Known about the structure:
Layout: H1 2-53, E1 59-66, H2 67-75, H3 78-83, E2 86-93, H4 98-104, E3 110-115, H5 116-126, E4 130-138, E5 142-145, E6 159-163, H6 166-178, E7 183-184, E8 197-199, E9 205-209, H7 214-217, E10 223-226, H8 228-233, E11 243-244, H9 250-254, E12 257-262, H10 269-278, H11 281-290, E13 296-297
Parallel strand pairs: 1-2, 1-3, 6-9, 6-10
Antiparallel strand pairs: 3-12, 4-12, 4-13, 5-10, 5-11, 7-8
Amino acid sequence: MKKCIAILLALVLALAAFGCSSAPAADTSADAPATQAPAAEEEATQAPAEDAAQPAELVTIRVGASITPHAEILNAVKDDLAAQGYNLEVVEFTDYILPNTALEEGDLDANYFQHGPYLDEFNAENGTHLVAVAAIHYEPFGIYAGKTSSLEDLADGASIAIPNDGTNEARALLLLEAQGLIKLKEGVTLTATKLDIAENPKNLDIQEIEAAQLPRSLQDVDMAVINGNYAIQAGLQVSDALAVEDKDSLAAETYANVLVVKEGNEETEATKALIAALQSDTVRQFIEDTYAGAVIAKF
């Protein structure tokens, strides 16, 4: 009897030990999927939210410009364009050739430095395909004193420097004519050259010089007719000029500085954004506050 009881006790203890050791194993295997699955689902639902929080990458627009005032005006609207998703990169040039060739070759998305007549002449002479899409501002040409301080004091044979590119040369000659210094052939206006001077009572020595070099020429000539942007860049004030183009003159209506793109890009979203930014109240106010009449908004 004692032997039977001992056997039964042994069986009970064995069953109890088996139950204690197997229960945790069963719980672990059952709990693992239940605790891990929700975590995976949570990560899956959070990932799109994190992606959505990332700011969209800005689209870069490269615009070539003369240093003054064009690059300065462009820089004034960088923040406005960034708010619309565009990173404006302003590439500065000191001449009138490279900004157009770079645009034609695709190195720029637009340029802003020239007026319409110059653009038309450049296209005709170089076979380029550039298009003006918006008029932004006008820079009055001025006659600035060099060795002679007033128009009345100009001596016979005095020297006057003017731009050597076709359209700006005509513009300078029209300003000299408006002051009674020369007279052009009848009917000749925007295409005038030195050869079209019909009367030159003071026998003025008209010297054609590259536009960017005109301010430097003042020390060597009696006077110079200087493009507005190069006058500003050289620290000349329009109030210092001996004569300035009238705001209602043919030049004022013709020589507005324009935003230019390559043919085929006139209606792109980037072009539309640039036009809106440059023809904004921000630019109008910036021009009025900065240039004291040397730059005039044309929109």
